[in-house]
Amino acid sequence: EHLDRIFDRFYRIQQPEKKAGGSGLGLAIVRATIEAHGGKIWADSPGPGQGTTFYFTLPFTPQIASSHEHTQLAPPSGPLAMPLRSATGGPRSHDRHPHILVAESDTRIARYLRANLEEQGYQVQVVHHGVQFLRRLDLAEPDAIILADLADMRALELLRRLREFSQAPVIMLCDSSDEDEHVRLLDLGADDLLSKPFGMKELLARVRTRLRHHASHSEQAPAKAIFKTGDLVIDHAQHLVLLHDQPVQLSRTEYKLLSVLAQNVGMVMTHELLLERVWGPEYNREIDFIWVYISRLRRKLEDDPRRPHYILTIPDVGYKLAKLPSPVP
């Protein structure tokens, strides 16, 4: 019941008749440390009172074959190994098992889905809360999503938020057979839907179909324009960032923030607008988010983060990405 908050700074669980210990920074520090090294961390639980299991991954040392090629990471091994993905969330070519994200508030249904999907060889992660769902998407984009109403957010709103930045296939699990609701979900971007109760064989068939269609569409999609400013290059088609012809490892949120700045290169983006575009309208007052992620981007992109060349601060207003001439060969 605390999964959506346990990584928050200063969040402490108050035990009955006991004082909460510590400052509530332990897990926040762990998460920041792992993410600073290009890793991911998440927690999962079978239900209230049944304990929590923590998982994390860290990348192997990259072996760069060419300055223009993807950074190749050795595949992980062991019982907790997860499919490797690029730092910006795109799938690696050597992923062996599709990654399915299940968002379902009913723990019994979630366990049922997980067991059957894992039986088919899929990598499965389960979330029960909206904040947890959005945070998981921030870490890595799954190959497909099974989405239902969650404890704190309706599936309709989650789908709307999801489609602002992701085209991952989504299969909706609906509590009713109301036609108008189904139409709204399809219009908002759902790829498929099933009404509860549903047959597991049919659901698995629909998952296979969605994965096939998505893979086919991805292969046929035309390449997007490559953005350049100075020695900084963003290849949107491959979610690849290069600086001085060398790959730069960015988290999904860092990449999204940089992309928003690049889409408005040379223009000032206010703190509020950046927060809404990257994190959502409910975060438009969380200025700390901007400071932290701008600082991270500068450490990765600037020769001297204290004297930025690319990401410029407009005092009391926001930031802009400088429009710089390409270097002379």
Architecture blueprint of SSEs:
Elements: H1 26-36, E1 40-44, E2 53-57, E3 99-103, H2 107-119, E4 123-127, H3 130-139, E5 144-147, H4 155-162, E6 170-174, H5 179-188, E7 192-195, H6 200-220, E8 226-229, E9 232-235, E10 240-243, E11 246-247, H7 252-263, E12 269-270, H8 271-278, H9 287-301, E13 311-314, E14 318-321
Parallel strand pairs: 3-4, 3-5, 5-6, 6-7
Antiparallel strand pairs: 1-2, 8-9, 9-10, 10-11, 12-14, 13-14
Helix pairs in contact: 7-9
What would your notes on this structure say?
With 329 residues, the protein is an alpha/beta fold. It has helices at residues 26-36, 107-119, 130-139, 155-162, 179-188, 200-220, 252-263, 271-278, 287-301; strands spanning 40-44, 53-57, 99-103, 123-127, 144-147, 170-174, 192-195, 226-229, 232-235, 240-243, 246-247, 269-270, 311-314, 318-321. The chain is built from nine helices and 14 strands. It is globular. Mean pLDDT is 79; it is low at 62-95. The strands form four sheets. It has a five-stranded parallel beta sheet, sandwiched between helices. Strands 8-9-10-11 form a four-stranded antiparallel beta sheet, covered by helices on one side.
Number of strands: 14
What portion of the residues fall into strands of 2 or more residues?
15-25%
Overall pLDDT score: 79
Task: Let me know the largest β-sheet.
Answer: 5 strands, parallel
Strand order of the largest sheet: 4-3-5-6-7
The poorly predicted ranges are 62-95
Put the structure in a nutshell.
The protein is an alpha/beta fold and 329 residues long. 33% of the residues lie in helices and 17% in strands. α7 (252-263) crosses α9.
